[in-house]
Every structure is written in C-alpha cells, then in structure tokens.
Specification:
7-stranded mixed β-sheet; alpha/beta; 305 residues
Amino acid sequence: MQAVRSADEIRDANTRYHDVAAAGYDTKWGIDFGPVGRSQVLGKLGKVLGKELKGGYERSLEVGAGTGYFSLNLLQAGVVQQATCTDISPGMLRTLSDNAARLGVSVRAARADAEALPFADESFDLVLGHAVLHHLPDLHRAFDEFHRVLRPRGRIVFAGEPSRTGDRLASVPKRGADAVAPLWRALLRIGSRPPAGDRDNGSGEDHSLERLVDIHAFDPGDLVALARGAGFTDVKVRGEELIANWFGWFNRSLEARADPDQVPMLWRQYAFHGYLALQRVDHHLLEPRLPPAIFYNLLLAARKR
C-alpha cells in the first residue's frame, strides 16, 4: 500500500512534475490560443456563468494557471481586463510568460501556493482555475483563500475537475486501447514508444511523478460542500464530456504507446476533430439530461455574498 504523503510532499511533487512537463505541456494537451481555444474556454465557463460572462470582469486571479490556457484566452476575448496568474511551478510560469509575450497580452504572473495566496483581501472580481483543485492538499484552506481575496459579489469558477464516477468509467476505453494498441500500431506502421531513458527530455521523471500529483476525484456534492463551507452562495455544479471523453482517452491511450514522431498527421486530425464533434453531442444531448456525476469533468461556480 502506498504511504500517505504529507501536504509538503504533495506540493513538492506538483512543483517538480509541472516543471518537467512545462515545455511540452501545450503540445501534449492540445492547448490552443487561437479561435478554437477561445471557443473552448468561453464554452466551458458559459455553462455555469451564463449571460454573466458577457459582462466581463475587471480583475481576475487564476490559481494553478499552468501555461495560461484560460487567462490568456479570456484576455484575448476581452472577458477580463486585468489578469493575475499564479502557479506553484516556476517552469509553468515561464512558459505562461512566453505565451503572453508571443500573443501580445499583458498578464501578472506570480509563484504562489493556492492555500496561502499573497494578495490583499477583496482584490479580485473573479477567481478561476482549470484542472487544479484535484492537485491541492488542503482544499478547505484553499477555498477560504479564494473567498478572502474576492470582492463582495465576486465569483469563483473552476473547470476540468475529475468526477469520481466519470474517472472510473474512463478506465474502460483506456483498457480497450491497451488491448488493441499493438494492432493499431501495426495497421498504421508505427513503432512503439521508446523507453523513457532513450529520450533526454525529462519525461522519465514526468511519468514517475504523475501518479503522485492527482490526489482527489470528486462527487458533485463534494464541491458544493467545499464552496458552501467557505461561505459561498449561489453554488452550481455541472458535468461535461462523456462520449467525447471516452473517445479522447481511447485515442490518447493508443498514442501513449506509440512513437510520437511516427503518429500520422491524418490520425491526429481525426482524433482532434472527432473529439470536438463529440463534445457538441455531449453539450446538446447528454449534459442537459444526465446527472453531473457520470461525466468525466465537473465545473463549479459560486458567488461571494
């Protein structure tokens, strides 16, 4: 049985893992800062913020901002006027700053622990994050900090948090991909992925730390309780991505066992556009009708009184 890790050990693993991952993170996860990326970000936030999103926010704080996927797209879309981005990883913040400079947008970047934010009370109109809560050792402290730095009537919104049931369901396409990966590689004439030691890019440490940094999966009620416990009101939780997620994890699991330099561009285009098409099916047909818990990702929004 794996030993229980302390909060400091978890933070250290998160820092090292994301430092190693930073250089190739956007490519690995298909992060885009053009029209497709903006559409994705605005679509996710719009599911829980609705028409309010069009009114925009003067000052935003993104926690665990990574390479800037959400904040940089929101700045380009004019939804936020001044963005502050924090992350525990210096490597991620360097990549974020490089992305901002390339895009010609201004952003304040600061290394910070989500559980001890270095900002004054009531500093921001919006606190947001994408795929960050499941990395945090002390969620109660973090939510207290989100509440503290928000102005009255300010919003929190978090996207991309793994649901406990959705995560278990996603294991089915992953196992299926493992079973057919050798046949898939043979059909496409692709070699298997070289051992980590054959690639001098830090990927060995990346893979060894990945299992240490994802420490939570959530039921919708967990997120509701965290928000209400910190004093938030108007709490909403919504699920997103079911069949798009199965499709995406099946393809990603196939690709994880192949030499990335040999995966054909035609395959990558099929995987990308197929994922977007199935996202639309989820959004219009499944998300309005099925309980949030069965979807892979959960979205949370709440307001400070």
